[in-house]
Design goal:
alpha+beta
Length: 241
């Protein structure tokens, strides 16, 4: 029953991403995207997981270019050449889903295209490790190995997490680590896997708003995330189609 509620939350989350993707264009503000998301959540019986979470003011997180995560929606306009990260978390009947993706705004550089492509692929390298009996470290190891093979750096201060009737639950799901170490995965567990990779160095800092995390060297950063169910023989992505 709980998994079914999370699947529904995840499906609405997926549809919200698709709706916002259609509206991403130069000139739209992050606040306008937030308003579209808020309306869509409410129309589908969901509420934002992030609004008010430890004081966070937004209905979703919108981060641009060198902003890694937790950017606050507002009056900033998207520009041609930007990349924008949408991190959407929502609750349906008490159960959370969490999903992020990075989108191009207009025409973007080859470097940003490369960063988006391989950050997304690193997420699926991590997801491929998921099955009953696998170790948590297998996920992080696969993500880190793929990132380094493609000359991208892994943000280590931030990670994925367990998810269910709380947005952030144990365990931490790191984007780096050793294979065959850590907690053993069991069927029925639900986790959010979310690599955050930088085109430059891995180091980050927080803006004065106490939320937005940026790359220290100003290089672009990309973020992809799915909520995933561990099954007997593999996994099911709850925030996919």
């Amino acid at each position: 029953h709980e998994i079914e509620l999370m699947k529904h939350s995840g499906h609405i989350n997926y549809l919200c991403h698709k709706l916002l993707e259609k509206n991403i264009r130069p000139g739209i503000t992050t606040g306008e995207l937030e308003s579209i998301a808020k309306k869509f959540m409410e129309e589908n019986g969901c509420i934002s997981s992030t609004k008010g979470y430890e004081g966070y003011p937004g209905y979703l997180c919108i981060s641009i270019n060198d902003e890694v995560v937790h950017g606050i929606p507002g009056k900033r306009k998207l520009k041609n050449g930007d990349i924008v990260k949408l991190d959407i978390s929502m609750i349906y009947k008490g159960y959370h889903s969490d999903s992020a993706a990075t989108y191009p705004v207009g025409h973007i550089s080859k470097e940003k295209e490369y960063l988006i492509e391989h950050t997304k692929k690193s997420l699926y390298e991590g997801i491929k490790q998921v099955k009953e009996g696998a170790k948590l470290g297998d996920i992080g190891h696969a993500i880190e190995q793929y990132a380094h093979e493609h000359h991208l750096s892994v943000v280590k201060e931030l990670c994925g997490h367990g998810i269910g009737n709380e947005l952030h639950e144990d365990p931490d799901v790191l984007n780096y680590g050793k294979a065959h170490t850590g907690m053993t995965l069991k069927a029925g567990m639900t986790i959010a896997i979310e690599p955050m990779l930088n085109y430059g160095e891995r180091y980050v800092y927080m803006l004065d708003d106490d939320w937005t995390i940026c790359t220290e060297d100003g290089s672009p950063s990309a973020h992809f995330e799915h909520t995933v169910l561990v099954t007997k023989d593999g996994y099911e992505i709850l925030t996919g189609e």
